[in-house]
């Protein structure tokens, strides 16, 4: 007869392996629901931080930048990702498509009244995080044509805008069907330092530096008002792609071609933090 050690004999009170697995799964499931609110708060905080410091999605509400950017009352307006990092290290350059706060002299046709109650205000604020313009939105999107120290005028014999007396190369320029392919002329204007002269790509369907504030110096945009550079069209999916930043002065001014790739390179480097943060949040949820 073989003696059996009572300490090694399984007790009926001890859980089986199946029971242990079930308890472990139940504990993990409980931990997930406890961590979920924290994860949501962290993700929401990251979204706000990214929009404030790195980039934000804006909706294009008008046709002034067609066909580079689409926006109209009877179609799905483009949502564009605006890079807020690049201009912390450099100033806007000719050809950049920028988003900026309208100076006091500018009139925004899309401004409406403020929401009437706290709930509406809260929903409006949440909507702005995903690119829906708020009721008192006074931000504009246009293309930089000339910067401080340059002289701009329209037009030469071939109906082209000139900067410092040299015609611009503007392949992005658009005229609505049925309208004359001629630009509205404006007097020669010397741009003060720290200011920008901007135009819409839909050249005759845009109120910009030519007409805002009745034109002249009142139509210029302070560099300090610039929020960021439009980089990528993120919605709708059929419109995914980068936003052209062709420098219209490269050919006329004889600038080296490599300069056109510098802003894009800076933008790619600036985009890495956004990509890494997004991956970490996704990995956290999967766990």
UniProtKB/TrEMBL annotation:
<feature type="domain" description="Peptidase S26">
    <location>
        <begin position="34"/>
        <end position="234"/>
    </location>
</feature>
<dbReference type="InterPro" id="IPR036286">
    <property type="entry name" value="LexA/Signal_pep-like_sf"/>
</dbReference>
<keyword id="KW-0472">Membrane</keyword>
<dbReference type="InterPro" id="IPR000223">
    <property type="entry name" value="Pept_S26A_signal_pept_1"/>
</dbReference>
<dbReference type="Pfam" id="PF10502">
    <property type="entry name" value="Peptidase_S26"/>
</dbReference>
<keyword id="KW-1133">Transmembrane helix</keyword>
<keyword id="KW-0645">Protease</keyword>
<feature type="region of interest" description="Disordered">
    <location>
        <begin position="1"/>
        <end position="24"/>
    </location>
</feature>
<keyword id="KW-0812">Transmembrane</keyword>
<protein>
    <recommendedName>
        <fullName>Signal peptidase I</fullName>
        <ecNumber>3.4.21.89</ecNumber>
    </recommendedName>
</protein>
<comment type="similarity">
    <text>Belongs to the peptidase S26 family.</text>
</comment>
<feature type="transmembrane region" description="Helical">
    <location>
        <begin position="36"/>
        <end position="59"/>
    </location>
</feature>
<keyword id="KW-0378">Hydrolase</keyword>
<dbReference type="InterPro" id="IPR019758">
    <property type="entry name" value="Pept_S26A_signal_pept_1_CS"/>
</dbReference>
<dbReference type="InterPro" id="IPR019533">
    <property type="entry name" value="Peptidase_S26"/>
</dbReference>
């Amino acid at each position: 007869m073989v003696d059996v050690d009572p300490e090694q004999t399984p007790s009926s009170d001890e859980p089986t392996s199946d029971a242990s697995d079930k308890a472990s799964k139940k504990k993990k499931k409980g931990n997930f629901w406890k961590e979920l609110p924290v994860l949501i708060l962290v993700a929401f905080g990251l979204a706000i931080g990214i929009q404030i410091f790195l980039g934000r999605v804006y909706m294009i509400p008008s046709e002034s930048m067609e066909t580079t950017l689409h926006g109209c009352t009877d179609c799905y307006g483009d949502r564009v990702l605006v890079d807020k990092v690049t201009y912390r290290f450099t100033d806007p350059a000719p050809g950049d498509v920028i988003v900026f706060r309208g100076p006091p002299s500018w009139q925004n046709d899309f401004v409406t009244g403020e929401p009437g109650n706290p709930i509406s205000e809260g929903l409006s604020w949440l909507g702005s995080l995903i690119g829906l313009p708020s009721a008192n939105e006074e931000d504009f999107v246009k293309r930089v044509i000339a910067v401080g120290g340059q002289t701009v005028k329209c037009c030469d014999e071939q109906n082209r805008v000139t900067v410092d007396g040299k015609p611009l190369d503007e392949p992005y320029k658009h005229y609505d069907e049925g309208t004359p392919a001629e630009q509205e002329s404006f007097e020669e204007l010397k741009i003060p330092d720290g200011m920008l002269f901007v135009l819409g790509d839909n050249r005759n369907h845009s109120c910009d530096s030519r007409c805002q504030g009745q034109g002249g110096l009142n139509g210029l945009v302070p560099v300090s008002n610039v929020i960021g550079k439009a980089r990528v069209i993120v919605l709708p999916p059929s419109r995914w792609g980068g936003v052209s930043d062709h420098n219209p002065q490269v050919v006329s001014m004889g600038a080296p071609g490599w300069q056109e790739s510098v802003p894009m390179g800076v933008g790619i480097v600036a985009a890495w933090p956004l990509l890494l943060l997004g991956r970490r949040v996704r990995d956290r949820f999967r766990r």
